[in-house]
Amino acid sequence: MGFAGTLPFLFAALAPLDVSDRYVLSLAYGLVILCFMAGTLWGFAAHRSDAFGYGASVIPAILAFGLLTDHVLSLGLGTVTRHWLLIALFVGLLPLDHWMQKQHLAPPWWLSLRLSITAVVLACLIFVGLQPIP
To answer: How far apart are CA 51 and CA 68, in angstroms?
Structure first.
């Protein structure tokens, strides 16, 4: 089921789309998934009411909010910059996943699944990010 979540990333990267559409699709879906992953970490932290886990799990979602399209908190970042920051946030989730597993909050299989799915996600996002917007 987890790999099914990579299909929109693969579509955005590989379908015959305009480059700007690739960015819009990968950024929009990526923000949704990033927040979903942060929520998953929150759920792990809830197992033991872990204060650090709660705090660490909401940070990615708060940062993702800043990557939404133009609003007062977006700091005027362009599409390409927001896209690369999204990539950085996905990479930044991995140490949190590792910490959750090390604390026995996440199941033993969690990190290996996350690493393989994140590799696909990052490959797609990087592929799109290397394409200049005309």
So the answer is: 27
